[in-house]
Write a structure and sequence with these properties.
heterotrimer; A alpha/beta (about 350); B alpha+beta (about 270); C mainly alpha (about 675); B: about 270 residues; alpha+beta; Beta-Lactamase; 2 domains; about 15% strand; C: mainly alpha; elongated
């Protein structure tokens, strides 16, 4: 409240002072709340997550000067940013993504204060799995005095529960993936473990690899057909560069084979023909990091003392044309909480 | 005052106390039931709005950006005339969407503070922000990381239902009064009928006591009681005879002694 | 004259009449109230049902707009169930096509009489494709009113006992007592004696008879008085032969000696006494909870003991003041003392209503205790004098009946009032009832000058020493009286409300559960006493009662976690009531036996001293229970108290058997 009025008044008075130019003393703006300096290091500029982060903070009434720097997808420029941060000493450093975060503050347990920023409060933004990446000690608290962040992954249990809600007698789910990608393999294993606790079987089909060790795009359609014969209730996407790059073909082949695709990312349903998605919206990813930042800037809490929150609510998105095409109609309870995409 | 009347008073007293207590009890239960029915009706509507808002919040939208909410509030306000106002308020107390009358929101800030203190949990009951004139509820709107992004405030007018409740109370009082009146009349009648023999018995005894002297042996006593009273009267006569004797003797002694005018003895 | 058996039957007839009218009146009021309620609520329920249907319909519309065909709608039942779950009056929701055929529905079943509403339609892009029909339970209002049926039953039960108590008193007061006196007058008159003083002249039929008698007797007595005057005036000139005649007249007419029938009416005091006890018992169901709510830290006293203090100090003061009040009664006169006692009672209750912290509560409860001691002793004194030696047992029975019936009514009604109006308002009502008692007293009671009637002996410390030295008394006090009192105040009065409140039961339910104890005491008190008299073995009854009470106190812990926990506590209450009905009169009988050792005045003093010592148990009860509860929780505490009582019971029976065996040596 006060922030808004102050900002508005400040604006008005500032505007007036433009007209009454030679009397700055008379047109003194009201005492403004303390301004914070926040340095945001991004991969390719301030995109949706970063914008959501910034809006969250300004809406919460904090007066912030944002300093935005992009490495333009070039990780070699990270040390330059580190130097700039050392010189500027902002109130808060925000690092976008795993690469930049690791590059600027280093892994958990590092003592190299030359190479890394360790003495400026830092919030990491849009990091898929900070603990697995070695950025933090534990998922529930960073364990590092100057680092805070948030858990933004959609838990496997939530994914399975949604699938179960959609298809009440969920028995089998399938994965078609590229065996050369380590993160895919790990994801399939994790999925199998989680599904077992729900009494759900996981069936898999590995894509055929080409001579260079990467999967062949031509093998997508036959793999889908083979998968369809195993009659899974859902086809689940896993984290994979190949799948992302071939998302349209991949999901179209699945639909053609009569398989509804479930994903925990936004891309396969927005750009592809996935039917059901449970994902963390980019805005909420930005907001939850903003929440951490707010506590550091407003309350002065040390980042290391903040517990690491997790996103609790995710966006449920249903691709209605695909659902109608496959004749897999969403039940009403699922429909109630879902966004519908036409 | 007759005996039956006196007893009937106590009977009616007990019945009246029970009737009053029963009337009060049922009336209180009725009022709470009525309030609950009404509140749950508006709660259904409020929860629906909450679900829509939280869908958007989960997407990362801010409450003020959700224009469909404003439309929904408008529609509800039109369809349900008892709704006085609907408001979406940010968690810092700024009114974001508003439809309906504007009033000084007396309990709003303290209720917000209370909500912030309690924290938000799934399926918690709404915070009651009624303040005598109107009834109101406040539901938290929760974002993707279970943080309260704002609240939905619904205020509805209870005047018509309070008026109906008053009517019901009057009806009840009328019925209770009627019932008690009827009970009193019946009690009086039945009690006097029931005690009739008793009353007659006592009246008879009073007569027997005052019966004038009769010659002994005139007629046989009709029952034991008459016999006893006859004996009683006989004893009274005997006593009076003795008294008369003493009186006469004293008179004589008086005359003999002092020539004083004899005192008169009332009889 | 009129025989008393017939009059008693008369009273029961009147009671039956009252109960019939009561039931009819209550039924009539309840029925028509229900009618009014439904008239207002049923439409409201239908409006709500429509709103609920609308909300479901909106989601169906959403599904239809998204392209899902109506016949292929999935998961309607779980969705509808979830919405309907919050509204118990909605039995079923059906999705119907345009022909009215049900396509989907919620899981519930609608009863035949259910009220259907099918105004809400579902549509795709404005085109109506079907309707939503909602079934509302037709008897929802009645069903919800069943929530209060236990309270209604409690009112009925209280009214029942009240009817008995009041009408018996009323008939005694208006019919039996006067009839008895008149009968006495008649009998005396038949023998030629016309000495007794006047019977009260009311203006009903009996009063007319009384008036006739009174006039007659008065007339003769006046004549005699005048004769006497003239006789005295004659002086030396009195004819000597008149003397025997005058003597005879004096014999027959002089009313110097008051006889039993005129020194007051036991029933006169019964109503005010009942009202007084009723006012005191109103808070029985919630006093410990009230104390807990007012808790403030007291220096040096733990939390548990602090909240037990109002009850414990009250009992302590009553115990200490009772003997003193006895002496006071001898001097002041019962009526005045009764009224005197009502003042601190009323003040105490009124100020308790405004008490805002624990210290204030303790203070005003102590004031109450003063009032209670004074009033109860005054009543006992009055009863003792009015009843005379011949009807002392009846007098005591009247006192006890008033106390237990008031306990029953007060506990349950107090619980209901506290639930609806709050604790403070209930205390104000109690004050009002105390004032009512005072008014009744002023109307009814006639005073007789202060005179020795035996209740006014002052206790000396030596008396305590006397009975404590005695093995029989020792056993009785330690192994029987104190445990019984301890259990009564510790379990019944202190721990039960706290325990049930902890489990989430309302004051109303608590009152009704506690009421069971009093009901059982009333129902079984006299029969078990008679049985004990017949069997002749009081020690058996005392031990059995103690052991049963002890076992019953284990129930709360054993029933932990059961559904309808309150019923189990009720059962425990009933069993304890039965146990006490057995052992308390038996203890009284043993007391009288033991007290026979002392003669005359010592006997009464011994009994008074015993009563004071007995109260130690009642004072300790809440304190002990509170302290234990702080560590073990309430149900365990009750169990521990029960084990203690059980142990005492076994000890008592063993020692009694031992005494019996060695009765030759028993000559203390």
């Amino acid at each position: 409240m006060s922030g808004r009025i102050a900002a508005a008044l400040g604006l008005a008075v500032g505007w007036l002072s433009l007209w009454c130019a030679p009397a700055p003393a008379a047109a003194q703006p009201l005492a403004e709340p303390a301004r914070h300096q926040v340095y945001i290091a991004t991969y390719r500029g301030c995109e949706e997550v970063c914008e959501a982060f910034k809006s969250y903070l300004t809406e919460r009434g904090l007066a912030i000067d944002f300093i935005e720097r992009s490495i333009e997808r070039d990780t070699s420029r990270i040390p330059d940013l580190v130097e700039e941060v050392r010189a500027l000493r902002p109130d808060l450093l925000v690092t976008w993504g795993t690469a930049i975060s690791l590059g600027m503050v280093g892994p958990y347990g590092t003592t190299d204060s030359e190479r890394y920023i360790t003495d400026i409060p830092t919030v990491y933004l849009y990091v898929a799995d900070a603990a697995a990446a070695g950025l933090v000690d534990r998922p529930d608290i960073s364990g590092r005095p100057n680092l805070a962040g948030a858990n933004i992954q959609v838990p496997l249990e939530a994914q399975l529960r949604i699938m179960q809600s959609y298809h009440s007698d969920l028995q089998r789910i399938g994965v078609v993936y590229s065996p050369n990608e380590l993160n895919s393999v790990a994801a399939v294993t994790a999925l199998r473990v989680a599904a077992a606790m729900f009494g759900v079987e996981v069936v898999e089909k590995q894509l055929d690899l080409g001579p260079d060790g990467t999967p062949l795009p031509e093998s997508i359609v036959p793999s889908m057909r083979a998968m369809a014969e195993m009659e899974p209730d859902f086809l689940v996407t896993v984290s994979s560069t190949f799948i992302i790059q071939n998302i349209e073909a991949y999901t179209r082949a699945a639909v053609d084979a009569g398989l509804p695709v479930f994903t925990s990312a936004e891309l396969p349903i927005r750009d592809g023909d996935a039917m059901l998605a449970l994902y963390a919206s980019l805005s909420s990813i930005g907001q939850i990091a903003g929440y951490q930042a707010e506590q550091i800037l407003r309350d002065g809490t040390a980042p290391g003392e903040l517990p690491t929150p997790s996103l609790q609510r995710f966006t449920l998105l249903i691709n209605m044309p695909i659902a109608l095409e496959l004749e897999r109609y969403p039940p009403m309870l699922v429909l109630q909480f879902a966004q519908l995409m036409s | 005052m007759r005996l039956s009347f006196k007893i009937a008073i106590y009977m009616v007293g007990i019945i009246a106390s029970a009737v009053i207590l029963l009337t009060y009890l049922t009336n209180a239960k009725f009022r709470s039931l009525q309030e609950e029915v009404e509140r749950s009706r508006f709660l259904v509507l409020a929860l629906d709005v909450k679900a829509t808002a939280e869908r958007g919040l989960a997407l990362g939208l801010a409450l003020e950006q959700m224009n469909n909410l404003a439309e929904i509030l408008e529609r509800l306000h039109e369809e349900h005339p008892e709704i006085l106002s609907l408001q979406i308020v940010s968690d810092r107390g700024d009114s974001l969407h508003h439809v309906g009358e504007t009033r000084a929101h007396t309990g709003l800030d303290s209720a917000l503070d209370r909500l912030r203190l309690i924290g938000v949990r799934d399926s918690q009951p709404p915070v009651d922000i009624s303040d005598g004139a109107t009834f109101g509820m406040m539901l938290p709107l929760v974002n993707a990381f279970d943080q309260m992004a704002g609240v939905l405030v619904l205020r509805y007018d209870r005047a018509p239902s309070l008026a109906a409740a008053r009517d019901v109370t009057f009806d009840q009082l009328k019925i209770a009064g009627l019932a008690l009146l009827l009970t009193a009349v019946i009690a009086l009648i039945l009690t006097s009928l029931y005690l009739h023999r008793l009353s007659r018995g006592f009246a008879r005894m009073a007569r027997l006591l005052e019966q004038p002297d009769e010659r002994p042996g005139q007629h046989k006593p009709a029952d034991v009681l008459e016999g006893r009273f006859a004996k009683f009267r006989a004893q009274v006569h005997a006593l009076e005879a003795k008294v008369a004797k003493v009186d006469a003797a004293l008179l004589q002694a008086d005359r003999n002694g002092h020539e004083r005018p004899p005192p008169t003895i009332s009889r | 004259m009129i025989e008393e058996g017939g009059l008693r039957r008369l009273a029961y007839g009147l009671i039956a009449l009252t109960l019939a009218l009561l039931t009819a009146a209550l039924a009539g009021v309840a029925y028509s109230s229900l009618h009014s309620f439904e008239r207002v609520l049923q439409p409201q329920l239908e409006v709500k049902a429509q709103v609920v249907a609308q909300v479901i319909g909106d989601q169906v519309d959403r599904a239809l707009d998204a392209g899902i065909p109506l016949e292929r709608l999935e998961g309607f039942a779980p969705f509808a169930d979830q919405v309907v779950a919050q509204h118990p009056e909605i039995q079923r929701v059906e999705l119907r096509d345009l022909n009215g055929r049900p396509l989907r529905s919620s899981s519930g079943n609608a009863e035949e009489e259910a009220l259907w509403n099918d105004q809400v339609t579902v549509s795709r892009q404005g085109e109506v494709l079907g309707t939503l029909a909602v079934a509302v339970a037709p008897t929802y209002v009645t069903d919800r009113l069943r929530d209060i049926q236990t309270e209604i039953l409690a009112i009925l039960l209280v009214a029942l006992f009240l009817t008995f108590e009041v009408l018996l008193v009323v008939v005694a007061m208006f019919v039996i007592e006067p009839a008895r006196r008149l009968s006495h007058l008649l009998a005396e008159g038949e023998k030629g004696y016309f000495r007794t003083a006047l019977v009260r002249e009311t203006n009903d039929e009996i009063g007319r008879l009384a008036k006739a008698f009174n006039e007659l007797i008065r007339r003769e007595q006046e004549r005699y008085a005048r004769l006497l005057e003239r006789w005295r005036a004659l002086g030396p000139a009195q004819p000597p032969d008149l003397a025997p005649l005058l003597h005879e007249l004096k014999d027959r007419l002089s009313n110097e000696e008051p006889t039993a029938g005129i020194s007051g009416n036991v029933s006169d005091v019964r109503m005010p006494l009942f009202l007084f006890f009723f006012a005191t018992e109103l808070s029985r169901a919630f006093l410990p909870i009230f104390a807990r709510d007012l808790y403030q830290p007291l220096p040096g006293i733990s939390y548990e003991v602090a909240i037990a203090l109002p009850i414990a100090l009250y009992l302590l003061l009553v115990a200490l003041l009772t003997p003193m009040a006895g002496a006071l009664a001898g001097r002041t006169g019962s009526r005045r003392l009764f009224l005197l006692g009502l003042v601190p009672t009323a003040v105490g209750l009124l100020m308790t209503a405004f008490a805002s912290d624990l210290l204030a509560l303790i203070l005003w409860r102590c004031v109450n205790a003063i009032g209670f001691a004074l009033t109860s002793i005054a009543a006992l004194d009055y009863i003792a004098r009015a009843a005379g030696r011949t009807r002392r047992a009846e007098g005591m029975a009247i006192y006890t009946a008033a106390f237990v019936t008031a306990g029953l009514c007060g506990t349950s009604i107090g619980g209901i009032l506290a639930d609806r109006l709050g604790y403070h308002a209930t205390f104000i009502i109690a004050t009002g009832i105390t004032l009512l008692s005072a008014i009744m007293l002023l109307i009814n009671l006639r005073e007789r000058g202060g005179g020795a009637a035996g209740a006014g002996t002052r206790l000396r410390l030596a008396d305590f020493g006397l009975i404590l030295a005695h093995r029989g008394f020792q056993l009785l006090i330690v192994a029987a009286a104190i445990p019984t009192q301890l259990l009564t105040t510790g379990y019944l009065f202190y721990a039960t409300p706290m325990l049930l409140d902890e489990k989430g039961y309302s004051a109303s339910i608590i009152g009704q559960v506690m009421m069971i104890y009093f009901i059982i005491m009333i129902l079984f008190g006299v029969p078990t006493a008679r049985l004990a008299d017949r069997v002749g073995n009081y020690r058996l009854f005392a031990s059995a009662g103690l052991m049963l009470a002890g076992l019953s106190a284990l129930l709360p812990q054993l029933a932990e976690g059961a559904t309808h926990y309150a019923l189990w506590i009720g059962l425990s209450m009933a069993l304890v009531g039965l146990a006490h009905a057995a052992c308390i009169p038996a203890q009284g009988a043993i007391l009288l036996q033991e007290a026979e050792r002392f003669g005359g005045e010592r006997r009464t003093a011994a009994i008074s001293a015993y009563r004071v010592l007995e109260r130690i148990g009642s004072v300790l009860g809440p304190l002990l229970a509170a302290t234990l509860a702080g560590v073990y929780g309430y149900s365990w505490t009750i169990g521990l108290l029960g084990l203690y009582v059980l142990g005492c019971g076994m000890l008592f029976s063993l020692v009694s058997l031992f005494i019996k065996r060695t009765s030759a040596n028993w000559g203390n």
